[in-house]
Amino acid sequence: MLLPDIISLIQAQTAEAVVAASADGLHPHVRVKPERLLEVCSYIKTEPQLNFDLLRCISAIDRPQEALIELSYDVLSIPLNHAIAVKVMLDRARPEIDSVCSIWPAAEWHEREAFDLMGVSFKNHPDLRRILMPDDWSGYPLRKDYQDLTEYHGLKIKP
Amino acid sequence: MNDIRLQSQPDLSYQDEIPADVRTEELLVNMGPQHPSTHGVLRVVLQTDGEMVLKATPHIGYLHRCAEKIAENVTYPQFVPYTDRMDYLAAMNNNLGFALAVEKMAGIEVPPRAQYIRVIFAELNRIASHLVAVGTYGLDMGAFTPFLYCFREREWILDLFESACGARLTYSYITIGGVRQDLPDRFADMCEEFLDFFEHKIVEYNNLLSYNHIFIQRTGNVGVCPAPLAVAYGLTGPCLRGSGVKWDLRKAAPYSRYDEFEFDVPVGEGRFGTVGDCWDRYFVRVLELTQSARIVRQALQKLSPGPVEAKVPRSLKLPAGEIYSEVENPRGQLGFYIVSDGGRSPYRLKVRGPSFCNLSILTALAKNCLLADMAAIIGSLDVVMGEVDR
């Protein structure tokens, strides 16, 4: 199935959930409303014509100028050999979104990483805690305005 | 006199205190971060009941350097050495993954000779990486000898790498636009010489380790990962193929002229147990050794004189936009997601490490297994912590 067909199928089947879409370019994607993410993801996984069964990656991008945090869910279909990304824009002040762990268990660690490094909170995640940084760390290192701690448990941190 | 005689009698009073059924309780066992079988600084907290592991919780991050944040502060060519240090057993493949992503975005056309050199080195590195995986897996299972043989052959590959770029582990040889320098004289002959020697050795590994009765008993039917579970957890590479899923990015979405080569994609067949057990994951790697050697031979034939580097501007700027690009690494699909704002360094760079995704299945795979099988399961996933933590 070609990319424009995939996008129009998603647009047709998930009523008005898709805000924007891009079939050309190096990163074809559909941007959906955050509150409809779970519905779209579960559709693209279960629909036999799409069958996006493998979640490759969840990437979070900080955009302080627009006060947004962007999430990109890169998915792949092994039986049909096609790929697309599903994107959502979240409010930077309170980034919160439904977890997709129930659809792709692979999301568990990717979401923990986004929580750890970007401070995105995932609703109904089975075990949402920091994954790479220590549990008692404060701040989210991949945010653009992140300031290094000066001290951690009595240890000086060099800038 | 009476007292002494009484004391020499065995004291049987404790027998009344032992209950009819032995009561056990759950015990938390800390495996790692310094444990020979965790292949680096991985810590797994095991909730055990006797010999059974009820739950295994991996704790990662001991090697976290936040390469993604570093990337935002360096230029694109400057980031190449950081990719070496992610999966440090397959640095060539990491270089290739990053270079391809940047080239696709910048629209750089790589000369044919450089593309074949890239394939040669990527496949040689795949062999080297699988040799470490196979050798250390034997070590985990208590077989020391195969490890020495595997490292002997790996050493030869490292010598070939050293002759081409001077480094033995962190190469930075495949750069944006091509490769850093042309092959040394006689490289093709040296490479052929190695392959002639190496291909016969695979039979030796099989006799020594793969078909060893004890090894099969330790790995067959252990840590079984059915195909739907493997896909659900985003497994790629030999771990996915070990579960019987025929999926290889070199075939599915060929890059760097992989479509010109003939090779097979081996999958797990459950020869000594169930499809997707530890033995299958291990044996897929052994079979891939032969396939990689096949590709290297073909690529050596295709080499023709020519430039090895495209013209890349000294201060490389990528057009604003984004890309998600993946390559097939020895451990699975390595993805680079680059967001550019038109500047000299990435606005955001996200790395999808195959080891990271492959390790996330550990809790599901190690549920209700035996304590002694933990080493078999972790080893069969073949994770490199440098890439898990990045």
Description:
The complex is a heterodimer of chains A (159) and B (390). Chain A has 159 residues and is α/β, with parallel strands linked by helices. Helix content of chain A is 21%, strand content 31%. Chain A contains 3 helices and 9 strands. In chain A, strand 3 and strand 4 form a beta hairpin. The longest helix of chain A has 12 residues. Chain A is elongated. The relative contact order of chain A is 0.14. By secondary structure, chain B is an alpha+beta fold. Chain B has 16 helices and 9 strands. In chain B, strands 1-2-3-9 form a 4-stranded antiparallel β-sheet. In chain B, strands 6-7-8 form a 3-stranded antiparallel β-sheet. In chain B, a hairpin with a 2-residue loop joins strand 2 and strand 3. In chain B, helix 5 packs antiparallel against helix 6 and helix 5 runs antiparallel to helix 12. Chain B is globular and about 90 Å long. At the A-B interface, strand 3 and helix 3 of A face strand 6, strand 7, strand 8 and helix 13 of B.
Short characterization:
The complex is a heterodimer of chains A (159) and B (390). Chain A has 159 residues and is α/β, with parallel strands linked by helices. Helices cover 21% and strands 31% of the residues of chain A.
Structural key phrases:
heterodimer; A: 159 residues; two-stranded parallel sheet; 3 helices; elongated; B: alpha+beta; three-stranded antiparallel β-sheet; 16 helices
